[in-house]
Protein 1
Amino acid sequence: MSIVPKETVEVIAQSIGINSLSTDAALALAPDVEYRMREIMQEGIKCMHHSKRTTLTTDDIDSALSMRNVEPLYGFASGDPLRFKRALGHKDLFYLDDKEVDFKEVIEAPLPKAPLDTSLFCHWLAIEGVQPAIPENAPYEVIASLPETKKPEQKSDELPVDIRLPVKHVLSRELQLYFNKITELAVSMSDSILFKEALGSLATDSGIHPLVPYFTLFIEDEVSRGLNDFQLLFALMRLVWGLLQNPHIHVEPYLHQLMPSVVTCILAKKLGKRIADNHWELRDFAANLVAHICKSRFGHNYTSLQTRLTTTLLKPFLDPKRSLPQHYGAVQGLAALGPHVVRLRILPNLETNLGILEEILRDNKKKEMTRHEAWRVYGALLVCLFLQNNHVLMCMWCIPASLN
């Protein structure tokens, strides 16, 4: 016997306009309705278990209907309690009073506001007392439109609340002109005497701290877009050197933006587009910048900085598929970090690398440019070996004679 009574089938038939359903037909349909209900419930329970839940939800039933190629139920969930009504002519039969909605009315009605899930994310309100210009912080127009803040009237049972407006980053006209002039010189007049004087001002001026985030962003953007412009890249690295030399500004909060640009000028496959561009000198200069950042400025504050940088430089050094200029940059970068890095990272792989370079130099079929690049890397490795041997000799010379 079905748990679905025939009266339920008759009421459902009446709700869809079938008023002449016979009792035999209702008795025959009731077991099939029960079977379909059990089938949907079992599929819904499977979806619940796969979702790692112990409570069956309406989403599980919708998924079960979708798996059975049945059109899902449409509508919005209501937080109100369910209201059952007694069916006419039946004492023990109740049904939900669901109002029928015309699709035309639903389509023409304005869309409701979508519910928003609660989420959290972090952003900088201020860095070194300066508010960054990001979408999360209120713009100046919003701040200017606010009336003068007055302390709100506090009730006796509430804690006092101090309302403060967000900080606005305002650059003076002089600082804007200063920034525009230096960036213009770096892009178009990097060989001029005026640019050298600008670098001197950048390394000594005590009032340019508000421009540090703008300079770092400018360097990052121009390096990523101007790898074919050798003069621009060298001018940008000189700007980095000027910022690092200035004792009155704090470059540390923006180090994560400067380091990728400097490392790019060491390990890039190609720097400049002309044969006459001396990209070897640029790689040497950038390697000295990296060593200055790690050993003289920020290595004592960030103990993992040199380790991470060494790992980054070691990957192209050990990869034979990388180009020879990349190998040269990796060798120069590792050598600039000191004899300890040379002893632990370069010397164990020195014989293999020298063997590969000697094969290139012996092969007369190689292009002259390739042989020239191989000579550069070969010379850099020999310099590393020479400096390491001199370091060992100096350490032995410093030991007192009584201990030898």
Protein 2
Amino acid sequence: MSFPLGNRRRVSATLPFSFLVALSFAVAAIAGGSKSPYCNNPVQLAMVKIWVDGDEGEYLAGLTASFGATLPEEKNKVPKLPAVFSNPLNGCSSSSSKLSGSAALSVRGDCDFVTKAKVAQSGGAQALLVINDKEEIEQIDCSGDVSPNISIPVVMVPKSVRDELTKTMANKRVELLLYAPTRPIVDISVVFLWAMSVGTVFTASLWQEFGISEQTEKRLNESSSKESSDAGTDSDNDQETIDISVKGAILFVILASVFLLLLFFFMSSWFLLVLTVLFCIGGVQGMHNIIITPVTRKCRNCPQKTVRLPVIGEVSILSLGVFLLCVIFAVAWAVHRRASYSWVGQNILGICMMINVLQLARLPNIKVATVLLCLAFFYDIFWVFISPLIFQQSVMIAVAKGKNTGGESIPMLLRVPRLIDPWGGYNMIGFGDILFPGLLITFTYRFDRESKKSMGKGYFVWLMVGYGFGWCGL
């Protein structure tokens, strides 16, 4: 049985975790240590598994207190506890609800956390879940008199838990199991994401060696000087590539910000459907070009049968057949996009689309590259870290989580399931993290090629290495 809280479990809990660990050490250093010897528990990311009427559901994430009992790493070492709301709900005084043998739930506020833990334990509770007053979770501090008598684990959970559990517990039995599984330092999915992101940029850069058309190759070979390069831009380049100008870079970031706000305010299932259709169109076009261009290049002298179609005109049967196969692939993915294996098709379509975009859109010089990448840098900072001051939550994170879409995320990203992480979920990379650096790297490859620089003395290899190492630090 599925439980709705599971859709909210990953971003709000995992993103602030490393920050909270670092912050707790900093505060301890400034304060000269904890106020009590019983307030030194390590911060743990707690997993709260949920059962509804005996059926296992999803889980939610919490953060443990720096006092009380620590949670075991294995779930088979702890029992399932019935969930019971404290009465009064703030948990500051003796509860009229029977808490014996239960996981008590109380809301934050009106008294310190230590008092809530003492009251819950005195009522016989085996654990205390403190519901935060906002969706993010925070470490529970040790304000108040901590004594060694507090022997139950204390965990903070997000604000949304209150309404959803209240609705579920009205006519169903809810049980909770609390433990803190250890996360691997590096999940194999991260390696796959690294290979896909670096491989996409590398392939797009070298695509002109084996995938571009004969006409484009001739134009590139004739662009060794600035004059011939400018002439090529005015003629053939308009048909096959788009050079980004400074004004275009500024306009792009502005439009991207407007589009992000539209997603934030109006994201819904139908809006996501529109994005899915656009994603499929881009993926089909990219996949078709990636397949057909090198084939026609290798068989440029081979006879090709053609067929005349309404509106489109005369096309080769080979191109039409490849296009239909690409459409079938995209439709099959769209229909099954919520299946556990859909990430494979999404990644294939996304990679094809990005390689195609990196061939169509080009940076003409380092000036435009500097403007675009600097604007993209501040774009990320604003919409991730500064936007909560204006919109009460991070706009970028809210959109990535799939706000108002039932947990389904937008398709414009690469994702791989966490294969050995007990928390499950997906590791993801947005297209912008590949396309923006990719524009610069493909530019350096073209520059090295036109300047006749060797691979070791050019810029491309070093930027490619830097891009790969940059991902290792994330």
Protein 3
Amino acid sequence: MNCFSDACVFHSLILCLCLQGALRQQPFDSSAEKPQFPGASAEFIDHLEFIQPNVISGIPVYRVMDRQGQIINPSEDPKLPKEMVLNFYQKMTLLNTMDRILYESQRQGRISFYMTNYGEEGTHVGSAAALEPTDLVFGQYREAGVLMYRGFPLDLFMAQCYANADDLGKGRQMPVHYGCKDLNFVTISSPLATQIPQAAGASYAVKRENTNRVVICYFGEGAASEGDAHAGFNFSATLECPLLFFCRNNGYAISTPTNEQYRGDGIAARGPGYGLMSIRVDGNDVFAVYNATKEARRRAVAENQPFLIEAMTYRIGHHSTSDDSSAYRSVDEVNYWDKQDHPISRLRHYMTARGWWGEDEERAWRKQSRKLVMEAFERAEKRLKPNPELLFTDVYDEMIPPIAKQRDAMWRHVQQYKEHYPLDLYEK
């Protein structure tokens, strides 16, 4: 009886989807002298003409503030309260401080790997502030600020990078691969773009639950070159999912500049081809990012459709601790973005002009933020590593014989060569 009921529900769903598709189709008129092809909406022409990629002008970049923090169009000012703007600034600078300390930690051999967020802090905080806490986040690997804005504590950032016993991932992931179920932040994966089709599936589930939630999926312009990006775009559009695709176009996919990655007009230009509502914003303008994400979220929920946001920014730091960016870009280029067009300095100009922030507040906060990060750093270094038994758990509900066999073999090896395995550094 249950199987019969499930089959009925399945066929009803298919029928419903087919009917919805039929309703969207244009009425067929065989007498009309215009194309009747169901695959596209177009007109006939009687002369040979190829569409040239550079004829259409580039998609404009939406911004609210100029580089000096001045509001350009008063009607676009989100008019956020002072406390919220100060929180933006403190989260962005705290992230910056944490980056510097953990980057140096890797250089000193204390952790194995790290990726900084220099220059992209505005994309994190502006987008995170526009979301609801229940919205589901799929990150790539440079969205630490989103998690920080949601309340992820410094101790857990450090625990993950040090893979100690407090790490929510139990020491199984390489550094900067954060995740937190309580904060609706899906654990980051190393392979590029795998999160994009996953986000499309998750947003379809959210749509069917009808829970007033959206899914946001972050990725870089380099990841948009992966096949997974195209699958995710197409699925989300055809299934009409409440999904925000958030592309951080920071100019470089590790050592590959954008002019070697694609010939088209960035990533936002791809949106219309897939049926995505699209916008390009100044990623160094935290208010522009906030406005665009907030409106996209509102419409995604109300209209059940995906949106593509391309945030134009710049990666000031190296791609990771495995990269030396001086090999493929000039010092002058990096200095320009660091000194002349940085999201943190732009927001500070805005606050200073309103009398909300000054040199005294800056010195006090810089000192306090460094103290907070260093205290968490020291606690993380002193913690024990996770129990080695955790290598074999969380795969099956009950440990199956092949896994138990691997575990026993591991312990025999450790006992045989125990001088190479300092078990006193691990939790019992």
Protein 4
Amino acid sequence: MSLTLFSQILPLFSKHKVVHFNRTDTRLANNGIQLDLQKLRCRVNFQGLKFTPEIETLGYKLVRILQDKGPFVALHLRYEMDMLAFSGCTHGCTVEEAEELKRLRYAYPWWREKEIMSEERRQQGLCPLTPEEATLVLQALGFDKETQIYIASGEIFGSERRLASLRAAFPHIVKKETILDPAELPQFQNHSSQMAALDFMVSVASNTFIPTYYGNMAKVVEGHRRYLGFKRSILPDRKKLVELLDLHQNGTLPWNDFALAVKQVHEKRMGQPFRRRIIADKPKEEDYFYANPEECLCEGTKCEDLVGRRP
């Protein structure tokens, strides 16, 4: 490793000043690294890295418009075609929609899983919450009709039809497309990562952040909000929620009992301090450093308060 560093990588740094390491995020070690290096990672990731001036200008404008109207929730609604196709999650879809998602999955030969049992995966908590499920969870958590909700996502699969129940329960729903002037977005619209960057900025700045799926963006937003002082991030326990949602929707669990159970499940899933989970020899299954950079969170916080595992 050191030989490669000095013979190959250092000359590249000297020549280009910046080197882009592609697809290395999931291969970076979480644990066992010197404290000063871990803190350097935090300073780079949460303070040093910046978006382009064009993205930052528009992102800050979005945040300013939302904040002028009061507190807001950023709902990272990961109910998008690519997510559903490749996860095999079709709960709430029509037969035709499920077939469309399956065809998309088969169109990519490098996607290893082809035949996926959607309901089995949902029961395991491996599917994003549907817009209808997210509506019930938000209501159970105590958010009311006056809550301002920013939808941080790309195009929702099923479009406005699938957002109907969410809009009925929360009329003050907005997206970047509805807040900004139509002339402001075209330069970003053909670049999904740049559109996601705008959502990222809003999500970090929100009063409450709620992801419906625990993917890469959700993890990094969670970590950034922890770094900024443990800002409120409600991290849904999807496996438990599916169980409660099904009981409520089949008439077994009355609303008041459902709402109480949802609140109890998430009491310790609000972005509070907790120790990063370490799994020996299984780094892909342990907690991601950038979601919980505990080594960087001690200043202003008693380190002994960082106790327990992820709930």
